[in-house]
Amino acid sequence: MVGICSYAGYIPRYRLNRMTIFSAIGWFNPAIIMNAAGDKSVANCDEDAITMAVAAGSRCLRGFNPQDLGAVYFASTTAPYKERQNANIVAGALAAEEEIRTADFAGSVKSGTSALLAALEYSAAEKGKEALACAADCRMGKVGSVQEMVFADGGAAIMVGGKDPIAIFKGSYSLSCDFVDHLRGANSKYDRQWEERWIRDLGYDRLIPETIQGICRKFDLEVSDFHKVIYPCYYGGARKNINRKLGLTPEQVQDDLMMDVGDTGSAHPLLMLAKALEDAVPGERLLVLSYGNGCDALIFEVTEAISTYHDRLRVTDSIKNQQELDSLYKYLSWRDMLPLEIGMRGEEERLTRWSLVWRSRKAILSLQGSRCLECGTQQYPPQRVCVNPDCGAVDRMEKVILATKKGKIVSFTSDLLAATINPPAIYGNVDFEHGGRCMMDFTDCVLDDLQVGMDVRFSFRIKYFDSKRDTTFYFWKAVPVKEVPTDG
Questions:
Q1: Does residue 269 contact residue 115 with C-beta atoms inside 8 Å?
Q2: Nearest-angstrom CA–CA distance, 208 and 244
Q3: N or C: the chain end with fewer CB closer than 10 Å?
Q4: Level-2 CATH architecture, domain 344-365+403-483
Q5: Which residues pair with 301 in a beta bridge?
Q6: 385 - beta bridge partners?
Q7: Which of the residues in the chain have pLDDT under 70?
Q8: Which 8-state DSSP code applies to residue 160?
């Protein structure tokens, strides 16, 4: 039987305290004080749905070979491209083979579970072959809205397959209806919603219990048969009503992460599932639901294999690895909600030459280098001719993925004149473990964090955004290891 073989969540480093938001805009809408407790996670200025999905996916694949994947599915309501498959970028950054099935899932915040169901169905049809479902969102609410307070940024990834699953998939139930509570048109930047009472009373309070009752009928189960019930709902009162209506005990209800993270949209059910699996023990039955124009419900039963899995990077570690974002203006400028004057340097043409990108796609997406089969010299970018002057072998190379290796800082500098919305720009030379050197930007750090010789890891990020052509270009950046857990 197929099931979950690996899981991971990714929560960005920065947190914005909700009282910081209220202090700045509470004069306009005092009612948002009701949602002002805790923090929301905020993607860095060089992060988006794709980079967060890659971060979650790379953590999920640690210890597994990405070239064994048969499918990569990506779910998001905030994907950067409408006509360029986003899942291909995710798969390429994860160093999956090109002989693979990829697909984007969108249109609803329940798209994360839709991608997970598709991955499970693929694996079952392909005799247990591994498939990866990634989900991430970076939604924005208008300034002064409840959505600005609760919408958060994050990603999650679930790998499924038939080999030693840690949680076996037992079945699903779906409810699909055109219940419009939230919507965002094709040309809209911000979410719109109908009145909150409508969302609470006829949305969450009806559709979620209806779905749970439906899956219980389908599989002849009782709500009490589940050790954890996992569902998103950022209305505290509505959650209490649902729990009371279904007779759920406090121990059964998975924490919704609202106080530490917020609502991460399509990723949230999978992120909550990853958090639940951290503490799961063999024999437990988990029920995970999504919500958005209906619901998906999936049942998993935890196996003995879970006991070998708890030493990995956890969602809890990602929550603890945080840095306060002390200015609401930074957040607004990073999301292009507050225009900044970055000078004439910001008017530089950033045309992406797609023929060049195609030829170098593996070096760009997965940070692929080459290693000489004759002398073992490693180099980036990949070469046909060995750079070792004592070797010079031609076409005797094997590929090596450098994104999963460590590096060391050779040099660094800060640049206050560079066109950036997060000054100063910090960049320098980085040596890859076992050979090769590259000029890279540093991210998730400040200048005082860096030292020559310091270890870094590599993170897939936005290199630049071409606003004239609505094109996002991605590459890898260096992150000081001390800024994240050592296995991060």
A1: no
A2: 13
A3: N
A4: Beta Barrel (2.40)
A5: 168, 285
A6: 394
A7: 310-311, 483-488
A8: E
Peptide bond into 269 cis (omega under 30): no
Looking up tokens 């994907």, which residue turns up?
Answer: 79
Q: Report pLDDT for 311.
A: 66
pLDDT of residue 488: 42
> What is the residue type of 450?
L
Per-residue burial over 123-155, b = 16 or more CB atoms within 10 Å of its CB, e = otherwise: bbebebbbbbbbbbbbbbbebbbbbbbbbbbbb
Q: Which residue has the tokens 């940070």?
A: 367
Q: Is 333 helix (H, G, I), strand (E, B) or coil?
A: helix
Residue 338: burial class (beta carbons within 10 Å; 0-12, 13-18, 19+): middle
CB within 8 A of 338, min separation 6: which ones? Answer: 329, 332
Contact (CB, 8 A) for 40 and 150: yes
3-334 under CATH 3.40.47.10, yes or no: yes
Q: How far apart are CA 8 and CA 315, in angstroms?
A: 7
What does pTM read for this prediction?
0.95
Structure tokens belonging to residue 319: 């929550």
Sorted by where each begins, the domain ranges of the chain are 3-334, 344-365+403-483, 368-401
Q: Is 237 exposed, middle or buried (0-12, 13-18, 19+ CB in 10 A)?
A: exposed
The answer to whether the beta carbons of residues 190 and 141 sit under 8 Å apart is yes
Beta bridge partners of residue 16, listed in sequence order: 40
- Distance, in Å, from the CA atom of 257 to the CA atom of 235, rounded to the nearest integer, reads 12
CB 290 within 8 A of CB 113: yes
Give me the residues paired with residue 135 across strands: 75, 156
Determine whether 464 is exposed, middle or buried from the number of CB atoms within 10 Å of its CB (0-12, 13-18, 19+).
Answer: middle
Angle among Cα 264, 11, 368 to the nearest 5 degrees reads 115
CA distance 53 to 98: 18
Measured between alpha carbons, how far is 430 from 376 in angstroms, rounded to an integer?
20
166, two tokens: 């840690």
Per-residue pLDDT, 487: 41
Place of tokens 């010079």: 392
Distance CA 99, CA 69 (A): 9
Helical segments of 340-476, H only? 354-359, 361-365
Residue 488 CA to residue 486 CA, distance in Å, equals: 6
Alpha helix (H) ranges present in 342-461? 354-359, 361-365
Q: How far apart are alpha carbons 370 and 116 in whole angstroms?
A: 34
